[in-house]
Amino acid sequence: MRKMLVSITAIALIGVLAACNQNDESDGDKKETVTPVETVEVTTGDLVVEKSLYGRTAPASTTPVTLQNPGELTELEVENGEMVEEDDLIATIQTARGNQNIYASKDGEIANLNAEEGAMVSNSEPLAVIADFDTMKLNFTVAAGTLDLFEKEDTFTASIDDIEYDAEITSIGSMPDDTGLYPVEATIENKDEAVLAGMVAVMKVPEKRVKDTVIVPTAAIVDESGETFIYVIEDEKAIKKEVWIKESQSNETAIEGEVNDGAQVVTNGQLTLTDESKVNVVKEGE
Question: Which of 1, 53, 97, 96 is closest to 204 using CA atoms?
Answer without folding.
Answer: 53
